[in-house]
Write a structure and sequence with these properties.
Blueprint: H1 7-19, E1 26-40, E2 42-50, E3 52-60, H2 62-72, H3 83-106, E4 111-113, E5 117-119, E6 122-140, E7 143-153
Antiparallel strand pairs: 1-6, 2-3, 2-4, 2-5, 3-7, 6-7
Helix pairs in contact: 1-3, 2-3
Length: 155
């Protein structure tokens, strides 16, 4: 995977989250992992198609997911992941990935994104790559979101 392809994902997170009422995110670290993402409790997976293929997985604890859903719902407390909270989480991943797709297009890479898939399972395994992939740890309001990215250009 080309490491330059991670910047549009980070930039999208840094731009979109404050627009949705979150404090300014901070990038913690970037590291390599092998093939599978192990869920921290809540994962959102979005695919890329056309001139780039692969996946981005937003991985977080249930506590972080409740914080994100509550903030997106203007402070409504989230105690369980009902339809409204799940919709808020899917919308967040859709907005982040769509912004990243816009950045990829500006780099001359024509991409589409798939519908976000949500998993509410801890220790759930998601195969994201046949090899290594990058994970970017982002901190937002004292909460951590791991962004796993395994993409490659197809054209």
């Amino acid at each position: 995977m080309d490491a330059k392809l991670v910047n549009p994902i980070i930039d999208a997170f840094m731009e979109v989250m404050p627009q949705m009422g979150f404090p300014m995110p901070r990038r913690q670290r970037i590291y390599l992992q092998d093939r599978n993402v192990i869920s921290n409790g809540v994962t959102l997976t979005v695919g890329f198609t056309r001139q780039m293929r692969g996946k981005v997985v937003y991985n977080m604890t249930a506590d972080t997911a409740r914080y994100i859903a509550s903030t997106m719902m203007l402070g409504v407390p989230v105690t369980k992941f009902g339809e409204l909270a799940q919709s808020a989480l899917r919308e967040m991943s859709n907005m982040l990935t769509a912004r990243a797709a816009t950045h990829f297009t500006q780099l001359g890479i024509d991409v589409d994104i798939t519908t976000p898939q949500l998993s509410l399972e801890e220790d759930y395994t998601i195969k994201i790559s046949d090899a290594q992939y990058l994970t970017v740890e982002m901190e937002i309001g004292g909460h951590k979101v791991d962004i796993a990215l395994a993409v490659e250009r197809t054209a």
